[in-house]
């Protein structure tokens, strides 16, 4: 691709589609969505953005307790990272899809990644672990890895990464994941605050 | 909005009041957490050096009796057990003696601080310094619920919360604001309310005489920083009965040592290992059976480590064994030093001649205790623990070489005969404890006073009632 | 299959003969590996306690001079550098002295064993015991190529191979068969040919007098197991000049200590960190620039750890600092013990009185050296290293308390005055070394003998020729 093409997206590229989706979100769902789903935060990489929807709480909590909490946020896995356009295109498309389902209260009890999402995630696993899964020298270190990894999805073996083995929106009863709208910061209860001031 | 809707998608059974001390009340709303919390009462699991089983440490390692001569710990010291046992254990411990009523007994009220959710309730009702005032026995009828929900949770939001002032004050002293703590940090800080080194400050301006609970963190949390702090304020917990050294007692600096380990460095919190996520009947929740993670390797470790459970256990034991090996040797030297110092006094040594030696003993035993009392530390942070033990070796070597020269000067140029401390009984006799008497007064206390406490508490709690949601909302 | 196809898709330029010592010849077929191998000549990288830069250890830490009084290491000891420097460094070291010709000089031929791929060639030509026989200077014209391909590779298959008999014999002695090693184990075992503790056995039945290279692994590889081995055969490397203790020298037990660390436990090999994969111009190959991984964190560590390079470096330094802190303190005590023992002899102590004390010094210094000389160990296995240092503290405390009593008995009941060893020069003077003379004989040797060796070698190698593939295949 030459420089011009890089700067000015090709007509056939996904740029147009992205624009269409942005417009769709803004005009179609408008203020309601903005308020309801904290739209602005949805554009960020903060996992809290995803918990704007309660149906995402189970996956948030399982991620929060997984080996990947410190390394990979939702978007590191669920959004393409091959180029910046693709990233936002995918996010916008996804966002619209999720939002529609959510607004219609059509969310299924147990969700599944759509095929497109699966491909994205698989590619992201590989993106981070490319050395471990492609270097011949790890053949001895991790037996059969080279052979097996090519034919299956990573998480068919690594089931615990990152959402555990139990799925479904009713798997969590007391949903107390942090809420992005919750601005109250104090961890000291007010009675103690008061006591300490008067001491 | 719908987010909040979801938050209460379960039907709360009761409205939990502020500082509700009764865990069972919380349990009505959060049965999975409560059921798992109840399991901390279990005392059947033992590991190489931990677990929930009752283990008499003075019996397992009789050196301890000599090291703590003149101090409560030489009377009785057991392995920590699950949180549900906290009230029972402090009541049964010979350290708290056999008070006959208000104003009696060896221990201050401050001892209750880390044992119950009745503590924040009382502090709220009476005030903090007032809570710390008086004898341990004075508040026996007020504190009956073992460590539980209100110690860590806000009753309205269920958010993690800091209910103990000492930790907040320690952060202040370091110039930090605990309200800035992240969610991840809170998953360790709730534990740091109790699993930390502490002392009783009786000189707090305006509260003179009150044994005010303090964490000595002003200069930092390393063994050196705390030592420096104590030296500067010339604090000592007690004077050793044999060596007459001004001693420091290190109590479970678990959080402080954890922070120096690789897990903390990688953002792993106490709750990640001691309260892992659990699935039961299609439900996921935080396992409130806080215990040795070795009883639960699959949830506690294998989330992050793919090794065999047996291998992971071996990793833990390996680090613990290597640490124990040197810790026990250091202990042996400390026992010798105390006995040698006693010999020197017996032979007429002067204060002046003993001064440096006693400081060496103080500092070396402080380092040993910092490594020994921080129970998980030989796994949480094996390299720092080894460094601390090494520094103890250094100091006690200096001390014992000085002692050898002093003893020679006093006419005793040979190895000092060591007492027979092959059993706990012999060791306790050697340091002059009348265990019979201690056990007797404890038995009487349990027969006479404790039932009264429980009755008074029952009476008091019966007035709290349960705030049924339907009635209140 | 495709894998083998790939392996031989390059066109070999030359046929490499068995035991070809000239690295450049191999380089014709494997230019990427050869080019990276050449970089081990670089000496510009320094870390907290490692790296390839020239560092005079006796200057950085003058205690060492006293600890090794009476032994070659007190003359000269530097940080190890890259493999390309092996021949140069052993030639320049004052330890190998200034031989005037065959049969002269302080060191045996065995010293060459770990310095060059000419060694397997010579062993093949002459026999193993014959190789070890005679003086270091006797083989100077035969050994000129620095550590290289033939030390680790089979010239036909390029498979990793063990070219040194000592390792094979050590496996035999332990009842193990090195041929059973897995591919992953071989990626460490090629290093274990050299990065291991060794001694020269002059009593081998049938080869009496020949300093036969041996690894003391029969009872195991721990510091205790090797000590037990040496004690049982009453071996000592030298008698200390001050204390007259029968000393042991630990030389780089790198492989032994590595095995006790968590990386080895998880199957990570030396090559994983010191020879990571590298991509250059779309080609992937094993980086043969063997060096401190801290010069290459992205390939060496971040393959498995995704932390910041700076954080990973800090992890390494942190462990090294904590280890160094106690290692240096132990060193200080050892210096004192040697000087105090000398004082005791001076005051007329008897062999009988000194016997136990000298054994304590031997054992304590052995432990210190085991921890100190295994250069990477404070990172490779920080917990075991700390354990070993702790055990050194224990033994030297016993020794020094005995010394204090003995000195008091001999009429000297006060601290023994320590010599001024604030610089390397002062320390070397204190132990009675004539450095001027040593430097002079080295200079003459380099001026007169070394050029002759190189000339003879050139002449010899010129006859090997290059076996061009087209001519031979
Ligand atoms: Ca304390
Ligand atoms: Ca040796």
Features:
heterotrimer, A: 199 residues, mainly alpha, Multiheme cytochrome fold, 2 domains, 53% helix, disordered N terminus, B: 473 residues, two-stranded antiparallel sheet, 23 helices, 49% helix, globular, binds calcium ion, metal-binding (chain A), electron transport (chain A), heme (chain A)
Could you explain how this protein is built, in words?
Chain A: This is Cytochrome c nitrite reductase small subunit NrfH. Chain A: Belongs to the NapC/NirT/NrfH family. Chain A: InterPro entries: Cytochrome_c-type_ET, Multihaem_cyt_sf, NapC/NirT_cyt_c_N, NapC/NirT_cytc_sf, NrfH. Chain A: It comes from Algibacter lectus. Chain A: It is found in: Cell membrane. Helices cover 53% and strands 0% of the residues of chain A. Chain A has helices spanning 3-7, 15-36, 39-42, 57-64, 74-78, 84-103, 115-134, 138-141, 145-149, 154-157, 190-198. Chain A has 199 residues and is mostly helical. Chain A folds into two domains: 1-37; 45-175, Multiheme cytochrome fold (Orthogonal Bundle), CATH 1.10.3820. With 473 residues, chain B is mainly alpha-helical. In chain B, the strands form three sheets. Chain B has a two-stranded antiparallel ribbon. Chain B has a two-stranded antiparallel sheet with strand order 3-4. Mean pLDDT of chain B is 94; it is low at 1-9. Classes of the chains: A mainly alpha (199), B mainly alpha (473). Chains A and B meet through helix 4 and helix 11 of A and helix 1, helix 7, helix 10, helix 11 and strand 6 of B. Bound molecules: calcium ion (2 copies). One calcium ion binds next to loops of chain B.
Helical residues, percent of chain A: 40-55%
Q: Tell how many strands the DSSP assignment of chain A holds.
A: 0
Helix content of chain B: 40-55%
Sum up the overall morphology of chain A in one term: globular
Low-pLDDT ranges of chain B = 1-9
Name the quaternary structure. heterotrimer
DSSP summary, beta strand count of chain B: 6
Secondary-structure-derived class of chain B: mainly alpha
Helices and strands of chain A, in order, run as HHHHHHHHHHH
**End-to-end separation of chain A:** 70 Å
Q: Radius of gyration of chain B over alpha carbons? A: 24 Å
Poorly predicted tracts of residues of chain A: 1-9, 30-43
Number of helices of chain A: 11
């Amino acid at each position: 691709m030459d420089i011009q093409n890089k700067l000015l997206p090709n007509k056939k590229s996904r740029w147009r589609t992205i624009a269409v989706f942005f417009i769709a979100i803004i005009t179609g769902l408008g203020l309601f969505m903005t308020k309801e789903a904290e739209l602005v935060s949805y554009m960020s990489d903060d996992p809290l953005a995803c918990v704007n929807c309660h149906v995402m709480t189970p996956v948030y909590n399982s991620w929060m307790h997984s080996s990947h909490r410190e390394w990979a946020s939702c978007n590191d896995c669920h959004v393409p990272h091959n180029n910046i356009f693709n990233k936002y295109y995918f996010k916008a498309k996804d966002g619209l899809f999720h939002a529609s389902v959510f607004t219609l209260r059509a969310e299924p009890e147990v969700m599944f990644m759509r095929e497109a999402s699966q491909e994205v995630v698989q590619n992201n696993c590989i993106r981070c672990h490319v050395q471990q899964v492609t270097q011949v020298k790890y053949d001895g270190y991790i037996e059969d890895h080279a052979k097996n990894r090519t034919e299956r999805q990573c998480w068919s073996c690594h089931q615990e990464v990152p959402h555990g083995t139990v799925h479904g929106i009713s798997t969590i009863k007391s949903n107390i994941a942090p809420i992005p709208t919750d601005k109250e910061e104090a961890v000291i209860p007010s009675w103690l605050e008061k006591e300490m001031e008067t001491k | 909005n719908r987010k909040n809707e979801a938050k209460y998608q379960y039907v709360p059974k009761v409205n939990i009041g502020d500082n509700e001390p009764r865990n069972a009340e919380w349990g009505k709303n959060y049965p999975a957490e409560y059921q798992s919390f109840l399991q901390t009462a279990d005392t059947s699991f033992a590991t190489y050096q931990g677990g929930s089983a009752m283990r008499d440490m003075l019996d397992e390692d009789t050196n301890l009796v000599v090291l703590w001569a003149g101090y409560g710990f030489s009377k009785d010291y057991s392995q920590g057990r699950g949180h549900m046992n906290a009230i029972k254990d402090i009541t049964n411990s010979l350290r708290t003696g056999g008070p006959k009523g208000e104003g009696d007994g060896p221990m201050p009220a401050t001892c209750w601080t880390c044992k119950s959710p009745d503590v924040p309730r009382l502090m709220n009702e009476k005030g903090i310094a007032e809570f710390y005032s008086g004898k341990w026995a004075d508040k026996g009828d007020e504190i009956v619920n073992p460590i539980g929900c209100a110690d860590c949770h806000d009753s309205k939001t269920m958010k993690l919360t800091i209910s103990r002032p000492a930790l907040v004050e320690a952060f202040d002293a370091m110039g930090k604001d605990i309200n800035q703590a992240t969610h991840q940090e809170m998953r360790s800080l709730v534990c740091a309310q109790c699993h930390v080194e502490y002392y009783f400050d009786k000189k707090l301006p305006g509260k003179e005489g009150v044994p005010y609970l303090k964490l000595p963190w002003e200069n930092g949390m390393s063994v050196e920083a705390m030592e420096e702090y104590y030296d500067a304020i010339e604090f000592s917990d007690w004077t050793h009965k044999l060596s007459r050294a001004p001693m420091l007692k290190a109590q479970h600096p678990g959080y402080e040592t954890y922070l120096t380990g690789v897990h903390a460095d990688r953002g792993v919190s106490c709750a990640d290992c001691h309260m892992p996520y659990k699935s039961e009947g299609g439900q996921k929740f935080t396992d409130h059976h806080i215990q040795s993670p070795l009883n639960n390797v699959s949830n506690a470790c294998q989330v992050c480590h793919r090794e065999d459970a047996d291998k992971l256990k071996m990793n833990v034991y390996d680090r613990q064994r290597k640490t124990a090996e040197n810790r026990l040797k250091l202990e042996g030297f400390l026992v010798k030093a105390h006995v040698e110092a006693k010999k020197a006094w017996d032979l007429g040594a002067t204060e002046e001649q003993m001064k440096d030696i006693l400081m060496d003993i103080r500092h070396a035993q402080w380092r040993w205790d910092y490594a020994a009392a921080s129970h998980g530390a030989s796994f949480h942070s094996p390299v720092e623990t080894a460094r601390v033990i090494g520094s103890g070796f250094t100091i006690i070597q200096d001390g014992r070489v000085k002692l050898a020269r002093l003893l020679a000067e006093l006419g005793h140029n040979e190895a000092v005969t060591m007492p027979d401390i092959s059993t706990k009984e012999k060791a306790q006799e050697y340091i002059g404890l009348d265990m019979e008497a201690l056990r007797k007064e404890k038995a009487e206390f349990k027969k006479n006073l404790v039932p009264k406490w429980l009755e008074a508490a029952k009476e008091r709690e019966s007035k709290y009632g349960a705030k049924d949601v339907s009635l209140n909302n």
